[in-house]
Give the backbone structure.
Amino acid sequence: MRIIDCHAHPIFFESGKTKQEADKLVSYSKSLGIERMVCLGDVLVHGPSPNEEQLRTINDDTRQLMAWHPDFFIGFCYLNPTLGEKPLRAELERCVEAGFSGIKLEIANNARDAVMTPLMKAAEQHALPVLQHTWDTLRKPMRKLHSDPIDTCLLARRFPNVKVIMAHLHSFGVRGVLEAQGLSNLYIDTSSCLPFAGLIEYAVEKIGPDRILYGSDIPIRELGQCIGRVIGADIDEETKKRILYSNAHTLFDLA
Amino acid sequence: MTFIDTNSSYGHWPFADLPKQTLSQFETHLQKHGIEQALVSRLETIFLPDPNQSNREHILACKRLSHLTPIPVLNLANRDWLDNLEAYRRMTEIKAVKLYPNFHNYSLSSTRVADLTEYLAKNEIRLILNVRMLDERHQYHGLAIKGVSKKQIIAYAKRFPDFPFLCTGLFRPEILTLAELCPQIRMDLSFADWHDLINGLIETINPERLFFGSHTPLMVTKANTYKLEVAAIPQTFKTQIARENAKAFFKL
C-alpha cells in the first residue's frame, strides 16, 4: 500500500520540532506505507492571525523538517492573507526558493474575502496549490474566520487556474461534496474528524475518484484510523489507490 | 488479528445513508474485519420511547448467530425496565445491558439508575454506558443530543465505587480524566483520537481498562480495527485491548 499524506502538522504547539521526533514520525509513517507527507506547519501556535515574524518561524520549522527528510516531507508555506500583499509575497517567495510546494491557509480570514486576491494571484504565478481549512459553518457563529465549503468553492471558482484543496471532508460533509461538483480545480482531502461511515463513498459517487486526496491531520488524529477509513470504505481497490496515492502524486507532480 | 467488539449496533441510522443489511450480513461484515464476537444493540432502541419489543426481537434474532451477543437497551425513564430485563434473562443469558441516558432523557443520579446498579451487581450483569453516538460538532441539525457529561459519570462512579462498568464513545481527554478519577471505569477506544493514541494512553492507564469498540455501522469498521492493528505497542497489549479484556470482563 502506497500513501501520500496531504495534510499533516508534524509540529503542533511546539511539539515535534526535534530531529529525534521527526525521525520517529518518519519511521512510523513509512512502516504504514506513507511515502510522502505534506507538512503544513504549526498553524495555531500563535493564534488565528500570526504576524510576519511568527509566520517566518513556523515556515522555518517546516523547512528544517524538509532538510532532515527531503525525500519524505513536502513543505507548504503557511500564510496570513490579512497581512497584505507585500509581506505575503515576500514570505511566499522566500519559501518557494526553499523548495516549498504549496500554500496553507487556516483561519486568519474567510476564503471569500477580498484579501485573498493577491495571494491567489501569487499562487497562480508560482503554480502552487492552495490548501484551505474548511468547516461546515451552517448557522454557526464562526464563518468570519472559518471558511464554509461554499466559500472555499467560491474561491476555486474565482481562480480557476489555481488548484485549491478543500480540507476536512468529514467536517464539511455532504454539503461540501455537493458544492465541489463540477469544479475541476478543486480537490477535497479526507483529513480530520472521526471516521463516520459513508462519506468517502458519497464523495466518490458525486465528484468522481480523481479529486479526492488522503489526509490525516496528525497529530490531532491517529494515522491508523485515518488510513483505515479509506481502506475500509466500500469503494473499488483502484479508487482507494487513487485517493491514497496517485491523485496526490499527480497533483504535486512528484514524478 | 481478532477482536471482540464492545460497541456495535445493528439497524438503520436515520441521518446517514448506510448500506441496508440483514443481521446475518452484519455478522459477516464484522467477521470480515476479524471481529469474532460483537456485543450488539439495536439502533432503533435509541429512538423508540419503549425499546422493549425491539430488544426482544433482537435477542431472538441473535440466537441464530453465534458471533453476536445481544445487549438489550433499557430506558430507565420507563417504569417497567426491571420487568423487561427479567424477561430478557428468561430468553437468554444477558451479559450486559446498555444505557443511553441523554437519548432517553434521564439522569445518572436518578433512583432508577441506583436500583439498576444494585440489580446488576447482585446478578453479575455488566453495564455499558453509552456517552455519545456522534461527534456533537457534526450531528445532523435535527438531532442535537449532547454527550453524557463527565461530571455526571464521575458522580455516578463515586456513588458506586465497587461497581465496574464500560463507557463507550468517550473522547481522549475524557478518557484521561475518567481513568484518573474513577478507577473502576473501563473505556472503549472508538471515539479516542490522537497521534500515537494508545501508546499515549497506556503511559498512565492500565491497558486492562481499554476495550476495542468499532462503533459499526456509524463508523468505518476498518478505521477502528486498523487503529489498533498498527499501534506502536507490544503485541500483548494489542491482544489484551482487542479481545482479552472484553472476554474477561463480560465472561464471554
User: Anything to note?
Assistant: Residues 8 and 213 of chain B are 7 Å apart (CA to CA). Chain B is about 40% helix and 15% strand. The mean pLDDT of chain B is 97.
